[in-house]
Amino acid sequence: MQIDSVNIGQTASAAVIIYEALKKAIIEGQLKDGEPLRQDEIARMFNTSRIPVREALTMLEQQGLVATQRYKGAVVAGISPDEAAEIWDFRALVEGRVIEEAVPRMTPETLAAARAHLAAFSEATNPVEWGDHNRRFHTTLYRDSALSYHLGIVEKTLDRVDRYLRAQLSLSNGVARADAEHEAILAACEAGDPARAGALTRQHILGAKANLLDLLRRG
Amino acid sequence: MQIDSVNIGQTASAAVIIYEALKKAIIEGQLKDGEPLRQDEIARMFNTSRIPVREALTMLEQQGLVATQRYKGAVVAGISPDEAAEIWDFRALVEGRVIEEAVPRMTPETLAAARAHLAAFSEATNPVEWGDHNRRFHTTLYRDSALSYHLGIVEKTLDRVDRYLRAQLSLSNGVARADAEHEAILAACEAGDPARAGALTRQHILGAKANLLDLLRRG
DNA sequence: TTATCGAATATTGGATACAATATGCAAGAA
DNA sequence: TTCTTGCATATTGTATCCAATATTCGATAA
User: Fold this and answer.
1) Would you call B173 an interface residue with chain A, using a CB distance cutoff of 8 Å?
2) How far apart, in whole angstroms, are the C-alpha atoms of residue A166 and residue B109?
3) Distance (Å) from the C-alpha of residue B187 to the closest C-alpha of chain A?
4) B84-103: string of b/e by CB count within 10 Å (b at 16+)?
5) Is B148 within 8 Å of A83 when comparing Cβ atoms?
6) Does the global pTM surpass 0.70?
7) Could you read off the pLDDT of B52-81 as tens digits, one per residue?
8) B36-37 and A73-76: which strand pairing?
9) Which residue in A122, B12, B54, B77 is deepest, having the highest Cβ count within 10 Å?
10) Closest partner residue to B86 among A10, A58, A149, by Cβ?
11) CA(B3)–C1'(D28) in Å?
12) Digitized pLDDT (tens) for each residue of chain A, 219 residues in all
Protein backbone atom coordinates (compact mmCIF):
# COMPACT_ATOMS: atom_id res chain seq x y z
CA MET A 1 0.00 0.00 0.00
CA GLN A 2 1.08 3.54 -0.68
CA ILE A 3 -0.46 5.41 2.17
CA ASP A 4 1.30 7.59 4.68
CA SER A 5 0.34 5.67 7.73
CA VAL A 6 0.77 6.45 11.39
CA ASN A 7 1.00 3.70 13.93
CA ILE A 8 -2.12 4.48 15.91
CA GLY A 9 -1.10 1.98 18.56
CA GLN A 10 1.67 4.35 19.48
CA THR A 11 -0.41 7.51 19.69
CA ALA A 12 -0.30 9.04 23.11
CA SER A 13 -2.76 8.25 25.83
CA ALA A 14 -4.13 11.04 27.98
CA ALA A 15 -1.68 10.07 30.70
CA VAL A 16 1.30 10.48 28.38
CA ILE A 17 0.08 13.82 27.06
CA ILE A 18 -0.33 15.14 30.59
CA TYR A 19 3.04 13.69 31.57
CA GLU A 20 4.83 15.45 28.75
CA ALA A 21 3.13 18.74 29.39
CA LEU A 22 3.94 18.66 33.10
CA LYS A 23 7.48 17.57 32.41
CA LYS A 24 7.98 20.46 30.05
CA ALA A 25 6.54 22.90 32.57
CA ILE A 26 8.83 21.61 35.30
CA ILE A 27 11.91 21.53 33.10
CA GLU A 28 11.31 25.01 31.80
CA GLY A 29 10.77 26.29 35.29
CA GLN A 30 7.15 27.36 34.86
CA LEU A 31 6.44 25.23 37.91
CA LYS A 32 8.72 26.16 40.77
CA ASP A 33 10.41 23.85 43.24
CA GLY A 34 8.06 22.74 45.95
CA GLU A 35 4.97 23.86 44.09
CA PRO A 36 2.11 21.43 44.78
CA LEU A 37 0.52 19.62 41.86
CA ARG A 38 -3.17 19.09 42.62
CA GLN A 39 -4.70 16.20 40.74
CA ASP A 40 -8.08 17.82 40.48
CA GLU A 41 -6.74 21.08 39.18
CA ILE A 42 -4.60 19.39 36.54
CA ALA A 43 -7.49 17.14 35.53
CA ARG A 44 -9.65 20.20 34.93
CA MET A 45 -6.90 21.85 32.90
CA PHE A 46 -6.67 18.86 30.57
CA ASN A 47 -10.39 18.11 30.67
CA THR A 48 -9.91 14.57 31.91
CA SER A 49 -10.57 12.68 35.10
CA ARG A 50 -7.89 12.36 37.76
CA ILE A 51 -6.93 8.85 36.68
CA PRO A 52 -4.59 9.78 33.82
CA VAL A 53 -3.27 12.67 35.91
CA ARG A 54 -2.24 10.22 38.59
CA GLU A 55 -0.46 8.07 36.05
CA ALA A 56 1.40 11.11 34.78
CA LEU A 57 2.43 12.01 38.32
CA THR A 58 3.61 8.45 38.88
CA MET A 59 5.85 8.74 35.82
CA LEU A 60 7.22 12.07 36.95
CA GLU A 61 7.96 10.67 40.38
CA GLN A 62 9.93 7.80 38.84
CA GLN A 63 11.99 10.37 36.97
CA GLY A 64 12.67 12.24 40.17
CA LEU A 65 10.91 15.36 38.92
CA VAL A 66 8.24 15.34 41.60
CA ALA A 67 8.12 14.04 45.14
CA THR A 68 4.97 12.43 46.48
CA GLN A 69 3.67 11.78 49.96
CA ARG A 70 0.77 9.46 50.54
CA TYR A 71 -2.49 11.35 51.01
CA LYS A 72 -0.58 14.61 50.76
CA GLY A 73 0.13 14.79 47.09
CA ALA A 74 2.93 15.67 44.76
CA VAL A 75 5.22 18.66 44.70
CA VAL A 76 7.85 19.68 42.19
CA ALA A 77 11.15 18.21 43.39
CA GLY A 78 14.01 20.60 43.85
CA ILE A 79 17.66 19.81 44.18
CA SER A 80 20.19 20.60 46.88
CA PRO A 81 23.65 22.02 46.15
CA ASP A 82 25.16 18.67 47.11
CA GLU A 83 22.93 16.77 44.74
CA ALA A 84 23.63 19.27 42.00
CA ALA A 85 27.37 18.87 42.49
CA GLU A 86 27.08 15.11 42.29
CA ILE A 87 24.91 15.18 39.22
CA TRP A 88 27.37 17.40 37.39
CA ASP A 89 30.14 14.93 38.26
CA PHE A 90 27.96 12.14 36.90
CA ARG A 91 27.38 14.07 33.72
CA ALA A 92 31.09 14.64 33.22
CA LEU A 93 31.72 10.94 33.63
CA VAL A 94 29.00 9.68 31.32
CA GLU A 95 28.89 12.42 28.72
CA GLY A 96 32.66 12.39 28.45
CA ARG A 97 32.58 8.71 27.71
CA VAL A 98 29.70 8.95 25.28
CA ILE A 99 31.30 11.62 23.15
CA GLU A 100 34.48 9.58 22.97
CA GLU A 101 32.46 6.76 21.46
CA ALA A 102 30.56 9.10 19.20
CA VAL A 103 33.44 10.96 17.57
CA PRO A 104 34.78 8.07 15.46
CA ARG A 105 31.25 7.42 14.17
CA MET A 106 30.25 11.01 13.64
CA THR A 107 28.71 11.88 10.27
CA PRO A 108 28.98 15.22 8.44
CA GLU A 109 25.22 15.64 8.96
CA THR A 110 25.69 15.42 12.70
CA LEU A 111 28.52 17.94 12.65
CA ALA A 112 26.41 20.30 10.56
CA ALA A 113 23.47 19.94 12.91
CA ALA A 114 25.70 20.63 15.91
CA ARG A 115 27.14 23.70 14.22
CA ALA A 116 23.63 24.98 13.56
CA HIS A 117 22.73 24.61 17.23
CA LEU A 118 25.93 26.36 18.18
CA ALA A 119 25.04 29.31 15.95
CA ALA A 120 21.51 29.44 17.28
CA PHE A 121 22.87 29.29 20.81
CA SER A 122 25.04 32.34 20.43
CA GLU A 123 22.21 34.26 18.79
CA ALA A 124 19.63 33.37 21.39
CA THR A 125 18.59 36.07 23.81
CA ASN A 126 16.72 34.37 26.65
CA PRO A 127 17.35 31.54 29.10
CA VAL A 128 14.88 29.10 27.58
CA GLU A 129 16.47 29.39 24.15
CA TRP A 130 19.96 29.17 25.60
CA GLY A 131 19.02 26.04 27.48
CA ASP A 132 17.35 24.50 24.48
CA HIS A 133 20.16 25.05 22.00
CA ASN A 134 22.80 24.19 24.55
CA ARG A 135 21.14 20.87 25.22
CA ARG A 136 20.55 20.07 21.59
CA PHE A 137 24.12 20.93 20.74
CA HIS A 138 25.42 18.43 23.23
CA THR A 139 22.94 15.63 22.60
CA THR A 140 23.48 15.97 18.87
CA LEU A 141 27.15 15.26 19.40
CA TYR A 142 26.30 12.22 21.49
CA ARG A 143 23.83 10.75 19.02
CA ASP A 144 26.21 8.78 16.81
CA SER A 145 27.63 6.90 19.76
CA ALA A 146 24.54 4.72 19.31
CA LEU A 147 24.77 3.91 23.02
CA SER A 148 21.05 3.91 23.64
CA TYR A 149 21.17 3.04 27.32
CA HIS A 150 23.77 5.71 28.02
CA LEU A 151 21.81 8.23 25.98
CA GLY A 152 18.61 7.46 27.83
CA ILE A 153 20.32 8.02 31.16
CA VAL A 154 21.89 11.25 29.90
CA GLU A 155 18.50 12.56 28.78
CA LYS A 156 16.88 11.72 32.10
CA THR A 157 19.73 13.34 33.96
CA LEU A 158 19.46 16.48 31.85
CA ASP A 159 15.70 16.57 32.44
CA ARG A 160 16.40 16.50 36.10
CA VAL A 161 18.80 19.44 36.11
CA ASP A 162 17.65 21.44 33.12
CA ARG A 163 16.36 24.25 35.32
CA TYR A 164 19.68 24.63 37.08
CA LEU A 165 21.62 24.38 33.86
CA ARG A 166 19.65 27.29 32.52
CA ALA A 167 20.24 29.28 35.66
CA GLN A 168 23.97 28.69 35.34
CA LEU A 169 23.99 29.78 31.71
CA SER A 170 22.19 32.95 32.69
CA LEU A 171 25.01 33.97 34.98
CA SER A 172 27.23 36.78 33.89
CA ASN A 173 29.33 35.57 30.99
CA GLY A 174 27.85 32.06 31.30
CA VAL A 175 26.76 32.09 27.69
CA ALA A 176 29.97 33.58 26.32
CA ARG A 177 32.07 31.05 28.13
CA ALA A 178 29.88 28.12 27.09
CA ASP A 179 30.00 29.36 23.54
CA ALA A 180 33.79 29.31 23.45
CA GLU A 181 33.93 25.87 25.05
CA HIS A 182 31.35 24.51 22.65
CA GLU A 183 33.40 25.77 19.76
CA ALA A 184 36.45 23.90 21.07
CA ILE A 185 34.48 20.68 21.58
CA LEU A 186 33.06 20.86 18.10
CA ALA A 187 36.51 21.49 16.66
CA ALA A 188 37.78 18.35 18.36
CA CYS A 189 34.89 16.38 16.88
CA GLU A 190 35.57 17.76 13.43
CA ALA A 191 39.22 16.87 13.85
CA GLY A 192 38.19 13.34 14.73
CA ASP A 193 39.94 13.45 18.08
CA PRO A 194 37.82 11.47 20.58
CA ALA A 195 40.16 11.91 23.53
CA ARG A 196 40.24 15.67 23.15
CA ALA A 197 36.47 15.89 22.66
CA GLY A 198 36.01 13.81 25.80
CA ALA A 199 38.43 15.83 27.85
CA LEU A 200 36.94 19.15 26.73
CA THR A 201 33.43 17.92 27.45
CA ARG A 202 34.43 16.89 30.96
CA GLN A 203 36.13 20.22 31.55
CA HIS A 204 33.11 22.05 30.18
CA ILE A 205 30.73 20.26 32.53
CA LEU A 206 32.95 20.52 35.58
CA GLY A 207 33.52 24.21 34.92
CA ALA A 208 29.79 24.73 34.77
CA LYS A 209 29.49 22.78 38.02
CA ALA A 210 31.83 25.16 39.84
CA ASN A 211 29.97 28.10 38.43
CA LEU A 212 26.60 26.68 39.45
CA LEU A 213 27.67 25.78 42.98
CA ASP A 214 28.78 29.32 43.47
CA LEU A 215 25.32 30.44 42.42
CA LEU A 216 23.44 27.89 44.56
CA ARG A 217 25.47 28.51 47.69
CA ARG A 218 25.14 32.25 47.49
CA GLY A 219 21.44 32.35 46.89
CA MET B 1 8.07 11.38 73.34
CA GLN B 2 9.72 8.01 73.72
CA ILE B 3 7.72 5.84 71.38
CA ASP B 4 9.01 3.75 68.53
CA SER B 5 7.09 5.45 65.82
CA VAL B 6 6.59 4.58 62.20
CA ASN B 7 5.80 7.33 59.77
CA ILE B 8 2.42 6.14 58.59
CA GLY B 9 2.50 8.66 55.79
CA GLN B 10 5.26 6.59 54.30
CA THR B 11 3.57 3.20 54.58
CA ALA B 12 3.22 1.57 51.24
CA SER B 13 0.21 2.13 49.05
CA ALA B 14 -1.31 -0.82 47.23
CA ALA B 15 0.43 0.36 44.07
CA VAL B 16 3.86 0.25 45.72
CA ILE B 17 3.27 -3.20 47.20
CA ILE B 18 2.25 -4.54 43.81
CA TYR B 19 5.17 -2.76 42.15
CA GLU B 20 7.70 -4.32 44.49
CA ALA B 21 6.25 -7.78 44.17
CA LEU B 22 6.24 -7.61 40.38
CA LYS B 23 9.71 -6.15 40.31
CA LYS B 24 11.02 -8.96 42.47
CA ALA B 25 9.33 -11.55 40.28
CA ILE B 26 10.82 -10.04 37.13
CA ILE B 27 14.28 -9.60 38.61
CA GLU B 28 14.36 -13.12 39.98
CA GLY B 29 13.20 -14.49 36.67
CA GLN B 30 9.91 -15.93 37.86
CA LEU B 31 8.31 -13.91 35.08
CA LYS B 32 10.00 -14.63 31.78
CA ASP B 33 10.84 -12.16 29.03
CA GLY B 34 7.85 -11.35 26.90
CA GLU B 35 5.38 -12.76 29.38
CA PRO B 36 2.21 -10.66 29.35
CA LEU B 37 1.11 -8.98 32.56
CA ARG B 38 -2.68 -8.84 32.62
CA GLN B 39 -4.07 -6.10 34.81
CA ASP B 40 -7.15 -8.05 35.74
CA GLU B 41 -5.24 -11.15 36.70
CA ILE B 42 -2.76 -9.22 38.83
CA ALA B 43 -5.58 -7.28 40.46
CA ARG B 44 -7.25 -10.54 41.48
CA MET B 45 -3.97 -11.89 42.84
CA PHE B 46 -3.55 -8.87 45.11
CA ASN B 47 -7.26 -8.52 45.81
CA THR B 48 -7.43 -4.94 44.53
CA SER B 49 -8.91 -3.16 41.58
CA ARG B 50 -6.91 -2.56 38.42
CA ILE B 51 -6.11 1.03 39.38
CA PRO B 52 -3.12 0.33 41.66
CA VAL B 53 -2.03 -2.41 39.28
CA ARG B 54 -1.82 0.15 36.51
CA GLU B 55 0.25 2.44 38.67
CA ALA B 56 2.64 -0.39 39.42
CA LEU B 57 2.95 -1.21 35.73
CA THR B 58 3.60 2.44 34.96
CA MET B 59 6.47 2.45 37.45
CA LEU B 60 7.91 -0.74 36.00
CA GLU B 61 7.70 0.71 32.53
CA GLN B 62 9.63 3.79 33.64
CA GLN B 63 12.33 1.49 34.98
CA GLY B 64 12.48 -0.36 31.69
CA LEU B 65 11.39 -3.62 33.26
CA VAL B 66 8.21 -3.93 31.23
CA ALA B 67 7.18 -2.67 27.81
CA THR B 68 3.66 -1.43 27.21
CA GLN B 69 1.59 -0.93 24.09
CA ARG B 70 -1.62 1.06 24.17
CA TYR B 71 -4.67 -1.19 24.43
CA LYS B 72 -2.41 -4.21 24.18
CA GLY B 73 -0.93 -4.31 27.62
CA ALA B 74 2.41 -4.87 29.27
CA VAL B 75 4.96 -7.60 28.79
CA VAL B 76 8.17 -8.30 30.67
CA ALA B 77 10.94 -6.48 28.80
CA GLY B 78 13.86 -8.57 27.67
CA ILE B 79 17.24 -7.40 26.56
CA SER B 80 19.16 -7.95 23.35
CA PRO B 81 22.82 -8.97 23.27
CA ASP B 82 23.71 -5.48 22.04
CA GLU B 83 21.86 -3.81 24.87
CA ALA B 84 23.44 -6.19 27.36
CA ALA B 85 26.89 -5.38 26.07
CA GLU B 86 26.22 -1.68 26.35
CA ILE B 87 24.83 -1.94 29.85
CA TRP B 88 27.88 -3.84 31.05
CA ASP B 89 30.07 -1.09 29.61
CA PHE B 90 27.95 1.44 31.45
CA ARG B 91 28.31 -0.51 34.67
CA ALA B 92 32.08 -0.66 34.31
CA LEU B 93 32.18 3.09 33.81
CA VAL B 94 29.94 4.08 36.68
CA GLU B 95 30.71 1.38 39.21
CA GLY B 96 34.42 1.82 38.64
CA ARG B 97 34.10 5.49 39.41
CA VAL B 98 31.88 4.95 42.42
CA ILE B 99 34.20 2.50 44.10
CA GLU B 100 37.10 4.89 43.59
CA GLU B 101 35.17 7.48 45.55
CA ALA B 102 34.10 4.95 48.16
CA VAL B 103 37.47 3.45 49.07
CA PRO B 104 38.91 6.51 50.86
CA ARG B 105 35.71 6.77 52.91
CA MET B 106 35.25 3.10 53.61
CA THR B 107 34.64 2.10 57.23
CA PRO B 108 35.67 -1.15 58.91
CA GLU B 109 31.98 -2.00 59.23
CA THR B 110 31.56 -1.77 55.49
CA LEU B 111 34.58 -3.96 54.87
CA ALA B 112 33.28 -6.51 57.35
CA ALA B 113 29.87 -6.52 55.72
CA ALA B 114 31.43 -6.99 52.29
CA ARG B 115 33.54 -9.85 53.56
CA ALA B 116 30.43 -11.50 54.99
CA HIS B 117 28.70 -11.29 51.62
CA LEU B 118 31.78 -12.68 49.97
CA ALA B 119 31.76 -15.68 52.30
CA ALA B 120 28.05 -16.22 51.78
CA PHE B 121 28.56 -15.96 48.05
CA SER B 122 31.09 -18.75 47.89
CA GLU B 123 28.96 -20.95 50.09
CA ALA B 124 25.75 -20.39 48.15
CA THR B 125 24.49 -23.21 46.01
CA ASN B 126 21.84 -21.77 43.70
CA PRO B 127 21.58 -18.93 41.19
CA VAL B 128 19.25 -16.76 43.24
CA GLU B 129 21.62 -16.82 46.22
CA TRP B 130 24.63 -16.23 44.04
CA GLY B 131 22.95 -13.25 42.45
CA ASP B 132 21.84 -11.88 45.78
CA HIS B 133 25.18 -12.07 47.55
CA ASN B 134 27.06 -10.94 44.48
CA ARG B 135 24.93 -7.86 44.25
CA ARG B 136 25.09 -7.08 47.93
CA PHE B 137 28.84 -7.53 47.95
CA HIS B 138 29.26 -4.91 45.26
CA THR B 139 26.69 -2.41 46.45
CA THR B 140 28.08 -2.65 49.97
CA LEU B 141 31.43 -1.54 48.63
CA TYR B 142 29.81 1.37 46.83
CA ARG B 143 27.82 2.57 49.81
CA ASP B 144 30.38 4.83 51.45
CA SER B 145 30.89 6.82 48.29
CA ALA B 146 27.76 8.65 49.46
CA LEU B 147 27.06 9.42 45.80
CA SER B 148 23.33 9.02 46.03
CA TYR B 149 22.52 9.83 42.43
CA HIS B 150 25.17 7.46 41.12
CA LEU B 151 24.01 4.77 43.52
CA GLY B 152 20.41 5.15 42.43
CA ILE B 153 21.40 4.75 38.81
CA VAL B 154 23.55 1.74 39.64
CA GLU B 155 20.67 0.07 41.48
CA LYS B 156 18.27 0.69 38.62
CA THR B 157 20.78 -0.63 36.15
CA LEU B 158 21.34 -3.74 38.23
CA ASP B 159 17.58 -4.28 38.50
CA ARG B 160 17.44 -4.14 34.76
CA VAL B 161 20.08 -6.82 34.20
CA ASP B 162 19.84 -8.89 37.33
CA ARG B 163 18.42 -11.86 35.43
CA TYR B 164 21.29 -11.89 32.99
CA LEU B 165 23.86 -11.39 35.69
CA ARG B 166 22.57 -14.49 37.41
CA ALA B 167 22.67 -16.43 34.17
CA GLN B 168 26.29 -15.42 33.66
CA LEU B 169 27.25 -16.47 37.18
CA SER B 170 25.66 -19.84 36.57
CA LEU B 171 27.98 -20.55 33.68
CA SER B 172 30.68 -23.09 34.22
CA ASN B 173 33.23 -21.60 36.62
CA GLY B 174 31.34 -18.30 36.67
CA VAL B 175 31.09 -18.39 40.44
CA ALA B 176 34.66 -19.50 41.02
CA ARG B 177 36.01 -16.77 38.84
CA ALA B 178 33.79 -14.10 40.37
CA ASP B 179 34.85 -15.27 43.79
CA ALA B 180 38.54 -14.81 43.03
CA GLU B 181 37.92 -11.40 41.48
CA HIS B 182 35.81 -10.29 44.41
CA GLU B 183 38.60 -11.28 46.76
CA ALA B 184 41.03 -9.12 44.82
CA ILE B 185 38.65 -6.15 44.80
CA LEU B 186 38.08 -6.43 48.51
CA ALA B 187 41.80 -6.65 49.12
CA ALA B 188 42.31 -3.41 47.21
CA CYS B 189 39.63 -1.77 49.32
CA GLU B 190 41.20 -3.00 52.53
CA ALA B 191 44.56 -1.73 51.31
CA GLY B 192 42.95 1.66 50.73
CA ASP B 193 43.91 1.70 47.07
CA PRO B 194 41.09 3.40 45.15
CA ALA B 195 42.72 3.20 41.73
CA ARG B 196 43.31 -0.53 42.04
CA ALA B 197 39.80 -1.16 43.37
CA GLY B 198 38.42 0.82 40.44
CA ALA B 199 40.53 -0.96 37.86
CA LEU B 200 39.71 -4.39 39.25
CA THR B 201 36.00 -3.57 39.36
CA ARG B 202 36.08 -2.48 35.73
CA GLN B 203 37.96 -5.62 34.72
CA HIS B 204 35.57 -7.75 36.71
CA ILE B 205 32.53 -6.27 34.99
CA LEU B 206 34.04 -6.31 31.51
CA GLY B 207 35.14 -9.91 31.97
CA ALA B 208 31.61 -10.84 32.95
CA LYS B 209 30.39 -8.98 29.88
CA ALA B 210 32.51 -11.10 27.55
CA ASN B 211 31.35 -14.20 29.30
CA LEU B 212 27.70 -13.21 29.07
CA LEU B 213 27.85 -12.20 25.42
CA ASP B 214 29.21 -15.61 24.63
CA LEU B 215 26.23 -17.11 26.41
CA LEU B 216 23.64 -14.82 24.78
CA ARG B 217 24.99 -15.21 21.27
CA ARG B 218 25.09 -18.98 21.46
CA GLY B 219 21.56 -19.10 22.73
C1' DT C 1 -4.54 35.64 74.90
C1' DT C 2 -3.11 31.16 73.49
C1' DA C 3 -3.33 26.38 73.08
C1' DT C 4 -6.25 22.48 72.14
C1' DC C 5 -10.02 20.03 70.31
C1' DG C 6 -13.36 18.89 66.87
C1' DA C 7 -16.15 19.53 62.94
C1' DA C 8 -16.18 21.01 58.08
C1' DT C 9 -13.67 21.03 53.93
C1' DA C 10 -10.13 19.61 50.72
C1' DT C 11 -7.43 16.18 48.74
C1' DT C 12 -5.72 11.77 47.66
C1' DG C 13 -6.29 6.41 47.20
C1' DG C 14 -9.04 2.95 45.43
C1' DA C 15 -13.44 0.49 43.53
C1' DT C 16 -16.80 0.20 40.22
C1' DA C 17 -18.76 1.20 35.79
C1' DC C 18 -18.40 2.36 31.10
C1' DA C 19 -15.90 3.32 26.58
C1' DA C 20 -12.33 2.25 23.22
C1' DT C 21 -9.57 -1.03 21.14
C1' DA C 22 -7.60 -5.68 20.20
C1' DT C 23 -8.13 -10.57 19.42
C1' DG C 24 -10.12 -14.86 18.16
C1' DC C 25 -13.39 -17.33 15.59
C1' DA C 26 -16.98 -18.54 12.50
C1' DA C 27 -19.18 -17.80 8.09
C1' DG C 28 -18.94 -16.79 3.48
C1' DA C 29 -16.42 -15.69 -1.02
C1' DA C 30 -12.51 -16.43 -4.07
C1' DT D 1 -8.95 -24.93 0.63
C1' DT D 2 -7.59 -20.18 1.84
C1' DC D 3 -8.52 -15.55 2.48
C1' DT D 4 -11.51 -11.98 4.03
C1' DT D 5 -15.15 -9.99 6.88
C1' DG D 6 -17.91 -9.19 10.75
C1' DC D 7 -19.30 -10.39 15.28
C1' DA D 8 -18.37 -12.00 20.12
C1' DT D 9 -15.13 -11.82 23.70
C1' DA D 10 -11.14 -10.10 26.14
C1' DT D 11 -8.40 -6.39 27.60
C1' DT D 12 -7.05 -1.80 28.32
C1' DG D 13 -8.15 3.39 29.06
C1' DT D 14 -10.97 6.63 31.41
C1' DA D 15 -14.93 8.57 34.18
C1' DT D 16 -17.48 8.54 38.20
C1' DC D 17 -18.17 7.47 42.84
C1' DC D 18 -16.86 6.22 47.60
C1' DA D 19 -13.35 5.74 51.42
C1' DA D 20 -9.30 7.27 53.89
C1' DT D 21 -6.53 10.87 55.30
C1' DA D 22 -4.95 15.73 55.70
C1' DT D 23 -5.89 20.53 56.51
C1' DT D 24 -8.34 24.51 57.94
C1' DC D 25 -10.80 27.11 61.07
C1' DG D 26 -13.77 28.21 64.73
C1' DA D 27 -15.18 27.20 69.54
C1' DT D 28 -13.78 26.35 74.04
C1' DA D 29 -10.90 26.13 78.12
C1' DA D 30 -6.64 27.18 80.55
Assistant:
1) no
2) 42
3) 26
4) bbbbbbbbbbbbbbbbbbbb
5) yes
6) yes
7) 999 999 999 999 999 999 999 999 999 988
8) unpaired
9) B54
10) A149
11) 30
12) 556 666 665 678 999 999 999 999 999 999 999 999 999 999 999 999 999 999 999 999 999 999 999 999 999 999 998 999 999 999 999 999 999 999 999 999 999 999 999 999 988 888 889 999 999 999 999 999 999 999 999 999 999 999 999 988 887 777 889 999 999 999 999 999 999 999 999 999 999 999 888 888 876
Dihedral, A183, A184, A190, A196 alpha carbons, nearest 10: -150
- Dihedral sign of CA atoms B191, B196, B201, B204 in order: negative
Kindly determine whether residue B9 and residue A72, on different chains, have CB atoms separated by under 8 Å: yes
AA identity, residue A89: D
**Residue A69 parent element (H or E):** strand A66-69
Ramachandran angles phi, psi of A67, nearest 5°: -120, 135
Helix, strand, coil shares of chain A as percentages rounded to 5? 75, 5, 20
Q: Kindly give the residue spans of alpha helices, DSSP state H, lying in chain B.
A: 14-27, 39-46, 50-62, 81-102, 108-123, 127-143, 148-169, 174-190, 194-218
- Residue of chain A nearest B98, judged by CA positions: A90
Minimum distance, in Å, between the CA of residue A13 and any CA atom of chain B: 7
| B66 lies within 8 A of chain A by CB | no
Best of B55, B101, B149 to disrupt the A interface by mutation (most A CBs within 10 Å)?
B149
